[in-house]
Amino acid sequence: MSESKAKKIEIKDVDGQTLSKLIDYIYTAEIEVTEENVQVLLPAASLLQLMDVRQNCCDFLQSQLHPTNCLGIRAFADVHTCTDLLQQANAYA
User: Fold this and answer.
1) 57-82 residues labelled b (16+ CB within 10 A) or e (exposed)
2) Which of 8, 28, 57, 89 minimizes the number of CB atoms within 10 Å of its CB?
3) Are 21 and 37 in contact (CB under 8 A)?
4) For the chain, what are the domain ranges?
5) pTM more than 0.85
């Protein structure tokens, strides 16, 4: 990969705050998933192949499922291929 020899690389679609949280996770194995950050953490974790964070995000969304938000969560799960979350959201729909 050309990135391995580059002095500087650009990670598109990941904001600085999210990247900082994910770097902290790499060092500490701890991350706080909230309603405010789950929609940016999940795709960034997928991009960076941090599968534990990705699963934590899916688990968080599953715990937040409610008839009033199931369609939005279902669409989000579908876009980000969160199969278990998609099935749970379909149960509400």
Assistant:
1) bbebbbeebeeeebeebbebbeebeb
2) 8
3) yes
4) 14-92
5) yes
Cβ 69 vs Cβ 38: under 8 Å: no
Q: Which residues are CB-neighbours of 47 under 8 A, at least 6 positions away?
A: 11, 13, 14
4-59 per-position pLDDT tens digit: 777 888 888 899 999 999 999 999 999 999 999 999 999 999 999 999 999 999 99
Token pair 């904001």 in the structure block, residue: 15
What is the per-residue pLDDT for 11?
82
Residues near 62 by beta carbon (within 8 Å), at least 6 away in sequence: 84, 85, 88
Largest CA distance in the chain: 49
Q: Residue 93: what pLDDT?
A: 72
What amino acid occupies position 41? Answer: L
